[in-house]
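new request in #modeling-help
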Amino acid sequence: MNQTLYWLHDEHLAPPDEIEEGDRLVYIWDDTYFDTQAWSFKRLAFVYETLCSLECEIFQASTVQAIDELSTQSDISTIVTWQAQDPTLSHLIQATQRRHPKLQVRPNAPLVDLQIKPPVKRFFYYWKRVEKMLTGRQNPRTYRRVK
Amino acid sequence: MRSRLAEIDATRYAKTRNALTGAVTQLSPYFRHGILTEQDLLAYLNQATDADQATRLIQQLTWRSYFHQVHAAQPEHIWQDAEPYKTGWQAHDYDPTLPDDIAQGQTGIRLIDQLIRSLLKQGYLHNRGRLYLAAYVVHWRRVAWQAGARWFLQHLLDGDIASNNYSWQWVASTFSNKPYIFNLENARTFAGDALDCEHASNACFEATYDQLQAKLFPYQARGTKP
């Protein structure tokens, strides 16, 4: 009853560092979701090959129904996934979380928190603020737009 | 997968990244799908590479992080023009549909069709190739950036909506101060053997930037089309 089910999605195709023996890695191959995304076969193949390399369980199903089904299994105590930036995927995760309040949706740590708020400024405004933090120095030659 | 980081040559990247044949990492699909994280790359670069050599690679990584955070700050805007076009044309002057000849890579313009073939067959384009193709779609064909962005997302293995859409807007000028365009001289400088720049069908790019500005954006000087 202490297994954690890690629900991977296409923005997080990696096992978490803290995964333990007995925990499950699951990917739900949701045809409706992929129809909405309209990805090429090559994109789908990339996702599939990655999943195969992870040796993760793949269920071809509706996402919501699959999480419904998996959450009733007695050995699973926690379901974990990660925030997504794609609106379609993000809505899917939110819809699932509404049905399963115990679903943990973990944030993705940004490289550096630029504290961006509308109205947003151009890239180089932020780059000048974070460059030293990331590279240890400031180099004005990096402040030019590509030609 | 993290072993692939050891293949990065940050020095060659810094020197050659702008060329279509340059030593780019091609790790973007792995970042897109969370197989590698930006933190993985930063940690590797800080440990294994001279800071000066790593700066350009870290800057590209920061572009990605920046676009993601812009999107997070205003997620409802991801398909909207962030600002008006600075081309003299208005949003309704741009075709909302991608023409078939572009979608199929049959424009008849050699270097453009070569780039489209790479997009369709490999699911990958060098960043400069993306800029060329986006500029052609938006500025030469006057197609709305949204149509091109949707097309890229269908095919690019690293297609992520924030980086993709804001990069298209950067080219279009709805998220930058001026439209990005290129000429054949620029392509000759950066394409190397990757594109057939000398083919006669590329003639629409054979001009100075001033000539192209005048041709593509005839109303730009007075703000918008009358």
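bot summary: The CA atoms of residues 4 and 78 of chain A lie 5 Å apart.
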